[in-house]
Each structure stands twice: as structure tokens, then as C-alpha cells.
Design brief:
With about 375 residues, the protein is α+β, with helices and mostly antiparallel strands. The chain has 2 domains: about 5-255, Creatine Kinase, Chain A, domain 2 (2-Layer Sandwich), CATH 3.30.590; about 260-375, no CATH class. Helices cover about 45% and strands about 15% of the residues. The chain is built from 13 helices and 10 strands. It has helices at about 45-60, 80-85, 95, 135-150, 180-185, 190-200, 230-260, 260-280, 285-305, 310-320, 330-340, 345-350, 355-375, and strands at about 25-35, 70-75, 105, 110-115, 120-130, 155, 160, 175-180, 200-205, 220-225. The strands form 2 sheets. The protein has an 8-stranded antiparallel beta sheet with strand order 2-3-4-5-1-8-10-9, with helices on one face. The longest helix has 30 residues, at about 230-260.
């Protein structure tokens, strides 16, 4: 299987479905593990890294996941492919541009990936659409049990799983949710979210993880502590306390926009529609920013019954699945698809060759115009 087989569509965990998906775009659980009898990667030679890679690749490829899997050798992959894997959330930036033998095993439907020789010997992750943290936990625990039948991990009765970074020692679990929080941003209340995360000892990162800024009002929220707390407690805290609190903040901000700042809301949506339907050049950052406002408008109509002049115009774009005048109705899935497929590496991989920034901006604008105007892309 080639990366081009998956590059022209979104993966199932980013399709806008799942519980609470208007705000919680996706849920992810990652486990960090190291093989017993081997040094941490920072102390390994390339020969030792190759041994670890070969051993873990064979195990990962043999797992019964109910899905086909394929392997990508990250260390010798073209730079464009590495950027694509990061954009796709299949590997981390650290893994993409690290040193030495390393690779990734990917399930065909992309709900599971196993990074080999990232910061730890093995980092496995499960992703699902919307707020499905318990379901992620159940699935990744089953996979972790399958792996532990084939290999021994470095484990201390006192400290738990031993990891390269002290913040992962213990369970080695990292629970993460991707959140869309445009109303908090528009109303100037995003600090409320940051303060709540800090008070709950949580990490806030941008769309592509550590070291990245938020794009299109998308934030990744994850736990920081893994030692002295059980996996079940971390999962329960996210589902029963953390996520409900953040959702309450964002919904309150959306209600405020609708009741007290409807002109601001209409202006954001109207500007986004006008620019996206007519722009001939658009950067990735601007596209994500504007698409975020369209996503907000669609969700506010669907979830809150909101009706303003701009939202009504947006509804006209949406149509219905049986509308004969709409070949591909605008929807949350469409917006999410544009979020991902207009990212730089996706654009270039689907086009078939590297493009300079100006040509990327022109192609991105063409794809978005086609989706929003319901035109043949060759005519837009």
C-alpha cells in the first residue's frame, strides 16, 4: 500500500462523526513502551536501533487488528512523505525528522499506528472520531495485551513502565483530545480554556502536537502526569470532568455570540464565505482560519438551531443529500476534508510533485472554490 492510496481523502477519525463532534473532533490514546534488555534510544547505536526496529516491525505487522496494516520506513522516506505523515497525525514531527533507523506501522483505516524508534522504542496510538476516550482505551489495551504476549517491556514494580522521558513513566499513557474552540477565541475568552487546562495539570498544544501553534482554532489537550495514577482514572477524569467543562465553556461562548454579538458572528461567517468562494491565492494558515468559521456556523445551526443572515446563506450552500442541484452538499465532513486535504504536503502528494508556495496557494484556492461553489474544479 502506498501513501497516495490514503492521501486523497480524510481518515475516519477526522470525518466529523462521533459523540460531541461539534467541539471534540477526535480522541486519541497513546502508550509509550521500551523493550526489556535494550538501552533507551539516546544510548543506542544504529545497529541496536536496527535490531529494535526489525523486532518490533515484525510483531506489529503480525497483530490481528481486524484491518490490513502497512509499513513505512521513515528514515529513508522522501521529505514530502514525512511532512504528509505528520499532517495526517500518523507520526510525530520528532519521529519524522529524527535520526537513525525508524519506521511506522499503519492500519489501513488509520485508527492505529505504531511508531518504532521515536523517543521510545515503541509508541502505539488509537484514534476515534468525537469523544470516544473509553473506546480508545479498550481498543489500545487489547492491542497492548497482544504485544506483551510476544515481547517483554521494560517495567519496574515500583515505577511501572520505564520510558525515555520521565513524564511518561508509570502507565506510559497519553490521553489527548482535539478540540474546535472558535467561539472562545472570537469572544476573547480563550484564556479561560488555557487557565482551566493549567489548573487541571493538562498540556495544550497546536494542531500538530508539541511545539506547534493552534491553527483554525484547533487545540490538542492532553494529560501530563502518568506516574501514580491509573489509566482508568485518567480516562475517567477526561470523560467526566475535563471534557464536560471545556464543552460548557465553548457552548456558553457560542450562546453569547448568538444572543449578544450576532453581528460579529455574521461578519466572521460572511467574510469567510466571500473569501473562500472567490480567492485565487490562499495560504494554509488563512484557509484553516476561514474554514473554522464556516464549521462554527454549520454547527451552530445544527446543534443550536441558530439562524442569522449569514448562517442562512451558509445553509443554502449546505443543501441536502437528495438535492438535485447539489453534487456534494457542504457539511462538517466537507469542511474537515478541506482542513486536511489543503495542507501543504497533502496538496503536493495528490498533485504528484513538489510545488512552490505560490502554486500551492493557487491550487488550495481552486480546491476550496470548487467545494464551496459546487463547480467542476476545472472551471473554477
Amino acid at each position: 500500500m502506498k501513501l497516495t492510496d490514503i492521501s486523497n481523502d480524510i481518515n475516519e477519525w477526522f470525518d466529523g462523526s462521533g459523540p460531541l463532534a461539534d467541539i471534540v473532533i477526535s480522541s486519541r490514546i497513546r502508550l509509550a513502551r521500551n523493550l526489556a534488555g535494550y538501552k533507551f534510544l539516546s544510548r543506542c547505536s544504529d545497529k541496536e536501533k536496527s535490531e529494535i526496529l526489525d523486532k518490533l516491525r515484525d510483531i506489529m505487522m503480525s497483530l490481528d487488528l481486524g484491518d490490513k496494516v502497512f509499513y513505512v520506513s521513515v528514515d529513508d522516506a522522501p521529505t514530502l512523505n514525512k511532512h504528509f505523515l505528520v499532517e495526517r497525525h500518523l507520526i510525530s514531527r520528532h519521529h519524522a525528522f529524527g535520526k537513525g533507523p525508524r519506521g511506522v506501522v499503519i492500519a489501513e483505516r488509520e485508527f492505529f499506528t505504531a511508531m518504532i524508534n521515536e523517543e521510545d522504542h515503541l509508541r502505539i496510538q488509537v484514534l476515534k472520531a468525537g469523544c470516544q476516550i473509553s473506546q480508545c482505551a479498550q481498543q489500545i489495551n487489547r492491542i497492548d495485551d497482544m504485544i506483551e504476549k510476544k515481547v517483554d517491556f521494560a517495567f519496574s514494580p515500583r515505577y511501572g513502565y520505564l520510558t525515555a522521558c520521565p513524564t511518561n513513566v508509570g502507565t506510559g499513557i497519553r490521553v489527548s483530545v482535539m478540540l474546535h474552540l472558535p467561539a472562545l477565541k472570537i469572544t476573547g475568552q480563550i484564556e479561560k480554556f488555557f487557565n482551566a487546562a493549567r489548573d487541571m495539570n493538562l498540556a495544550v498544544r497546536g494542531l500538530f502536537g508539541e511545539g506547534t501553534e493552534a491553527a483554525s482554532d484547533l487545540y490538542q489537550l492532553s494529560n501530563q502526569a502518568t506516574l501514580g495514577v491509573s489509566e482508568a482514572d485518567i480516562v475517567s477524569r477526561f470523560e467526566k470532568t475535563i471534557i464536560p467543562e471545556i464543552i460548557e465553556y465553548e457552548n456558553a461562548a457560542r450562546s453569547q455570540l448568538l444572543s449578544k454579538q450576532s453581528d460579529v458572528l455574521d461578519d466572521k461567517i460572511s467574510r469567510a464565505m466571500a473569501l473562500l468562494q472567490n480567492a485565487r491565492l490562499i495560504s494554509s494558515q488563512e484557509a484553516l482560519f476561514l474554514l473554522s468559521h464556516l464549521r462554527l456556523g454549520i454547527n451552530m445551526h445544527q446543534r443550536m438551531g441558530a439562524s442569522t443572515p449569514a448562517i442562512e446563506k451558509l445553509r443554502a450552500l449546505c443543501g441536502t443529500s437528495d438535492d438535485p442541484n447539489k453534487t456534494s452538499p457542504l457539511s462538517i465532513a466537507t469542511i474537515n476534508r478541506l482542513f486536511m486535504l489543503t495542507l501543504p504536503a497533502h496538496l503536493q502528494l495528490n498533485y504528484g510533485k513538489p510545488l512552490d508556495p505560490t502554486h500551492r496557494d493557487a491550487l488550495r484556492a481552486q480546491i476550496i472554490r470548487s467545494a464551496l461553489n459546487q463547480d467542476d474544479p476545472r472551471k473554477s
